[in-house]
Amino acid sequence: MAKNFDVVVIGGGPGGYVAAIRAAQLGMSVVCIDEWKNEQGGPALGGTCTNVGCIPSKAMLQSAEHFEHVQHGLAEHGVEVKGVKLNLAQMLARKNGVVRQNNDGIQYLFKKNKVSFLHGRGSFVKADADGYEIAVSAPASESVKGRHVIVATGSNPRELPNAPFDEKLVLSNTGALAIDAVPKRLGVIGAGVIGLEMGSVWRRLGAEVTILEALPAFLAAADEQVAKEAHKLFVKQGLAIEMGARIGDIRKGGKDVTVEYTAANGEARKLVVDKLIVSIGRVPNTNGLNPEAVGLKLDERGFIVVDDDCRASLPNVWAVGDVVRGPMLAHKSEEEGVAVAERIAGQHGHVNFNTIPWVIYTSPEIAWVGKTEQQLKAEGVAYKAGSFPFLANGRARALGDTSGFVKFLADAKSDEILGVHIIGPMASELISEAVVAMEFRASAEDIARICHAHPTLSEATKEAALAVDKRALNF
Ligand code: FAD
Ligand code: NAD
User: Domains of the chain: which residue ranges?
Assistant: First the structure.
């Protein structure tokens, strides 16, 4: 006999586990099913984000930044360090430890909130008047029944058809986070978020990194001015980035990979590398979910079809996160998970897609929220722009990290903030102020009139807001 729950959540990544906790907080009986296995075959809650995404990549970015900083960033502070050595095994072990802490943390949260957990793959079996039956297999073997089902099965890395991942020479994000010796030559296909973050990690650790990108424009989703600055800084750091590359044959040798491609100028070129990371986007994951059993609709690209409120094509079936439309970001998944749990409880869950922040954890960091200047131009919106460089910010000078700027875009008439774009130190943290401001529909003047502590990087945000009205004080 299948055990009955108010809510069955399939997938324990940021979308699923957060939905499960919120539903339990609201008094519902909840089970979360997740199939991710750690090296010992045990459960590893947290999905892509915790196991092979956000968390391990940020752990490696931090370690690699320390390694670079201790060699090149301390002398100007009068700190002399000699004999710096890389212990990559320790760096990887630390990263794995950080992942485990997060895995265990989610198990603890499930216990605390009385969320039941089943380790295994969840598949739709059938629907009847009381809800949906889900079979759970390997290592668990049982059936559960849910009045509501939340599907949060995430995404998988997209492969190039002629270069499937083997995680030895051709790496997805999984392999890219676990290379056990720094490759001399590292190739990356795709200059998106993963390509830039992983390329930065391995460049800082000593690899010669070449990134091949199909599009002619660098970081096309970011504000053009930010993308231009980022390109200049990354190239200066030593990342070789080739835009407009058309990838041809990819051949694996015993110890290397050869990528043939056509350069933007039409020239046929060849890149020989010791490892190749392929980071060309991700595809929704419905492997083993068996949506056909209940007639759950997918679109032509494999995403589960949902409305604005994450309602799928069947009554009481919901889907959130990477497996549905919208940006593939952990915090977007979490917000959707919370909103769905609240809707099931009869509340008015809400996600504001206009204020979802983006962050790229390179050095300097890049973060933005709202519209880019090119989007506003394309939409014919009249706007004012103001920016402020970190070079003119006292805290940035004291830190010795003065690259980049903060840029505000505000409505020409009402002064409402339409977008904020930051490239510079701690951009990931600074962007929160802009998100809050936009959520409250603040004007640039509101930020300009708020007292910001001195000396802080956040003063650059205030100054950029002042610059919208052409009255920056320190530049
Ligand atoms: P996932 O995290 O993919 O979780 C889905 C879970 O469902 C998995 O555990 C999977 O095993 C399980 N599952 C799937 N099918 C079944 C089934 N049938 N039965 C049982 N379980 C199933 N986003 C950010 O916001 N910030 C970042 O810094 C960031 N960095 C990233 C770095 C990398 C290298 C990568 C790859 C991604 C990064 N992302 C980042 C994106 C982020 O990881 C995803 O947007 C997020 O994990 C999506 O959450 P989700 O819950 O929808 O899916
Ligand atoms: P992406 O969409 O960020 O970048 C993929 C890049 O590959 C694009 O620039 C695209 O033009 C290029 N590309 C596609 N096909 C190509 C081809 N055949 N040849 C050469 N270039 C090609 O995807 P990603 O970097 O793989 O990351 C996947 C997702 O993970 C992202 O959408 C992002 O949402 C998420 N992620 C987020 C973070 C973060 O928030 N900091 C970090 C990593 C990943």
Answer: 3-156+283-351, 170-280, 355-468
